[in-house]
Write a structure and sequence with these properties.
magnesium ion binding, 3-isopropylmalate dehydrogenase, Isopropylmalate Dehydrogenase, two-stranded antiparallel ribbon, ten-stranded mixed sheet, binds nicotinamide-adenine-dinucleotide, IsoCit/isopropylmalate_DH_CS, cytoplasm, 12 helices, alpha/beta, metal-binding, single chain
């Protein structure tokens, strides 16, 4: 029987609809070539949902996504909704969706494409060949810990992790490492923080379940420095919420363009796949957005949610081929461009390469 999957599509605002359209084009090409079927259901979130329903995260969306095998998401937000009260704003809708889906692991790969080594602000010799993944705990730690407060004179937050929370995120990192070069670097601040000591001890315990994986530990201040000094030393970086927030943004800049980087947020039951950038209202509707981050997110969806590794690899290879042939969207037009393409043109080129072996 044909393998068949249900995908919830959330296009969102700004460039969201344009980049999701290209990801669907590529998914359709690769699923046809690999002999499986994808069925799409569309849901509203963010500004588009506010306009249609007066709610940034309508019940239909929060319930509908749970019926799907995975969610592919564009981006939300824009000036039009910036002055609404906080609970009505597009960003609130996205936070609600993540919470509802209980996606506790944020996975951000950073790949520096050979053809774009000059796009980074770092020297090509430093970034060439970088291929790492940051695995960040997303729904715990200091951003959510209780008690928290601010009386105008004194303010405090609590950095807290339970052992099960550390165990489950550690397993995600080790599972990913098993599919790569079997190295995990766990980042903490165990020389100062009790919570980091529990983190380190627990990660050590989980490592025993993965005897083939080499585990190292690094303090977060050193990790921030090493990411710039010699990023190639890293494969999988495992870390908590606040450290991961900062390090994953730092790591994303190794590649030089925000339009290239995908992400996945996964939980026990659900997965949300999205580019790391926002809705780019400044270029929306002009056909110049770079869809590669979204197309690469679709590849992650095939790999992590649907276990369609071959199809995921085809898409990643197609992106590399497109870039090495010199096809560029406008954001990358100064870096060895042979031809500057529209959003739709580059989507079609990637789809064609992905469909042919
Ligand atoms: P942004 O990421 O949307 O844009 C930053 C800059 O990068 C802009 O100049 C934009 O044109 C450019 N850019 C972004 N993606 C691009 C792409 N694919 N191709 C070419 N250029 C691209 O960040 P911002 O301007 O700070 O935010 C715009 C809106 O997006 C805001 O409403 C913000 O709240 C929202 N936002 C949403 C998400 C999300 O949906 N996950 C994330 C971040 C920001």
């Amino acid at each position: 029987m044909t393998r068949s999957y249900k995908i919830a599509l959330i296009k969102g605002d700004g460039i969201g609809p344009e980049i999701i359209e290209e990801a669907v084009k590529v998914l359709d090409a690769v699923s046809y070539a690999e002999g499986f079927e994808l069925k799409y259901d569309e849901y509203l979130l963010g500004g588009a949902a506010i306009d249609a329903t007066d709610d940034p995260a309508p019940k239909e969306t929060l319930e509908g996504v749970k019926q799907a095998d995975a969610v592919l998401f564009g981006a939300i937000g824009g000036e039009k909704w910036d002055n609404l009260p906080r609970e009505k704003r597009p960003e609130t809708g996205l936070l609600k969706l993540r919470k509802e889906m209980e996606v506790f692991a944020n996975i951000r790969p950073v790949t520096v494409y050979n053809e774009l080594v000059n796009a980074s602000t770092l020297k090509p010799s430093v970034v060439q060949g970088v291929d790492l993944i940051v695995v960040r705990e997303l729904i715990g730690g200091i951003y959510f810990g209780q008690p928290r407060g601010n009386d105008g004179n004194k303010a405090f937050n609590t950095m807290v992790y339970s052992k099960p929370e550390i165990e489950r995120i550690a397993r995600v990192a080790f599972d990913i490492a098993m599919k790569r070069s079997k190295r995990v670097c766990s980042v903490d601040k165990a020389n100062v923080l009790d919570v980091s000591q529990l983190w380190r001890d627990t990660v050590e315990e989980i490592a025993k379940e993965y005897p083939e994986v080499t585990l190292t530990h690094m303090y977060v201040d050193n990790a921030a420095m090493q990411l710039i000094r010699d990023p190639k030393q890293f494969d999988v970086i495992l870390t908590g919420n606040i450290f991961g927030d900062i390090l994953s943004d730092e790591a994303s800049m190794l590649s030089g363009s925000i339009g290239l980087l995908p992400s996945a947020s996964i939980g026990e039951k659900f997965g949300l796949y999205e580019p790391i950038h926002g809705s780019a209202p400044d270029i929306a509707g002009q056909g110049i957005a770079n869809p590669i981050a979204t197309i690469a997110s679709a590849a992650m969806m095939l790999r992590y949610a649907l276990n369609e590794e071959v199809a995921a690899g085809r898409i990643e290879q197609a992106i590399k081929q497109t870039l090495s042939e010199g096809y560029r969207t406008q954001d990358l037009s100064s870096y060895d461009a042979k031809e500057v393409c529209s959003t739709s043109e580059i989507g079609s080129i990637i789809a064609n390469y992905a469909a042919s072996k």
